[in-house]
Please model this.
Amino acid sequence: MAEYDYDLFVIGAGSGGVRASRMSASFGARVGIAEEYRFGGTCVIRGCVPKKLMVYASHFAEEFEDAGGFGWTVGESSFSWPALIAAKDKEIDRLEGIYHNILGNAGVEMHKGRATIVDAHTLDVAGKTVTADTILVATGGKPTLPDVPGIEHAITSNEIFHLPDLPKRAAVVGGGYIAIEFAGILNGLGAETTLFYRGEQILRGFDDDVRNHLAKEVVKKGLNLRTGTNVTSIEKTATGLTLTLTDGTTTEVDAVLYGTGRHANVDGLGLEAVGVERNAWGGVVVDEFSQTTVPNIYAIGDVTNRVELTPVALMEGMALARTLYAGEPTSPDHKDVPHAVFSQPSCAIVGMTEAEALAHYGELDLYKSTFRALKHTLSGNDEQTFMKLIVDQASQKVVGVHMVGADAAEIIQGVAIAVKMGATKQQFDATLGIHPTSAEEFVTMRDKWTPPQAEAAE
Ligand code: NDP
Model:
């Protein structure tokens, strides 16, 4: 191995790349890493972390209103977008510094600049030739924009974090994670916000009950939800942006944000030249040990199009370090990955949707509950919480848990342990609730849900 500059060279210092490089170094590997933008990657710099900070910011208007029901009179309030952006930037700078330190303390050599693959063991790193026994591609993803006339006037989740002002009138295109989260943020902060989604119902691929419940709730919060509608062109005018819609009508906004999916960030990386295969969506094809079609080149995280979530990239990075440098072949486990949409209200899920469980297990027992959280008995807020348990009838294992409501992600994180352990409905029932909480509903749902027509027939 000494013939190479490094045992492992990692391209991309996002969640996956940083975890893989520092763990590999801790197992004794000589590791180098290159980052062309900022250390921390999408999640820390322009994804999960700043987004969540903005979600917090956008909740306050509603909290001020809810406070009235508890006897508070809240004085006149105002919101400063530049103040939020500055505070957020300061925190992101701090986190980037921490990433730097973590890598430095682990003995990983950091290279600032773009790395490209020259051959299976050689890289060009900002004009310098570097050799490595093993190469890891951890370059993440980037936003996909459809080919719509005027798309250059649109922004993505990259630019929203640096807008100089909060748009007064905002349009969001897409019906997935990013579109729904930012529509909630913009709406909560006071922008007149419309979400345009081309399909029938938002969050395709999620459980239908979750989709339908969330759609109702976001509308209650003032979001203008236009399903079955797409934007066909964007025109810049003296007063804003004119969007032409699929029904032929037009609407004027100050900003249009596209959350229309992400794709693997591999352009110009040199993967084709060395024979690294990619899938139909451009993602790097890997086996269960994250090995690409070139034996000494590996890939982890969003660039592989497996499950595009930070904790998954961390797990893949950890598994790879163990496999390569700790003598413990470890494949990442992508089953029952809990996930959340930080919409307003938020959604969180672990396990299967009803449709997936039906296809997999056949007979199911379903438990559903829709209720007004205790807080809202006084706040006057008409938000409804939704919870659902999906149980395989034969084994009585809980195979899907879904929630739409306040703190859904915090609650589902705990429930995910039980689901991962294969807990049964009886074990959920034997667990006592913490009273009074919304979460206790997950251990107190006793009546199986029956479809309305079955009830009528009884
Ligand atoms: P998603 O795949 O979640 O959603 C993309 C949306 O864009 C879909 O509603 C899709 O519609 C729509 N769309 C695609 N192409 C077009 C088009 N040409 N015109 C109009 N609409 C279109 O992607 P996101 O960008 O929201 O997020 C990417 C990934 O990042 C997620 O899958 C997730 O893994 C991760 N992420 C996770 C977050 C979290 O954990 N909270 C937050 C943000 C991102 P259709 O359904 O019809 O295909």
In short: The first helix runs from residue 15 to 26. Residues 146, 173-179, 181, 197-199, 204, 230, 259-262, 308-309, 339-342 surround NDP (CB under 6 Å). The radius of gyration is 24 Å.
